Amino acid sequence: MGINSGIYKLVLVLHILCAIVGFGAVLLNGIYGQQARSRRGTEGLAITQANFLVSRIAQYFIYAVFVFGILLVVLSDKAWSFSDSWIVTAMVLYILGIGLSHGLRKSWSRWARRRPGRPAASRLHRSSSSKNAAGVSAWSAPCSSWTSS
Asked: What is the mean pLDDT of residues 113-142?
């Protein structure tokens, strides 16, 4: 096939679009967190829930970046190789980044559930989980201290 084939170019466009959508969607998460902290009650909770829904969708685009990247190497007809140092480095950094991201997310959730003042956060979490079919309510607990005052 090679790097000039139509399928290679299609996969390349999908790879780039997934990178833009996936990483772009989570790039400004800190601003959403700051805005949720500055707005108490249901407004802050709504910002937090919307942010986590977008982040949850974005994670699938971020996973697709890796898949399309592998496909690009396979479809390149030996123009690129898995032994190329930049490809090995990119794959290692991607896997480390995903692992770090998942590890930090889980430890943050565990820490937030154990801290003092949990009953108010727990009430907010339970009330939001019954209304949220997308499953993002699991992320409300870590951020509910911003909205429980």
From this structure: 45
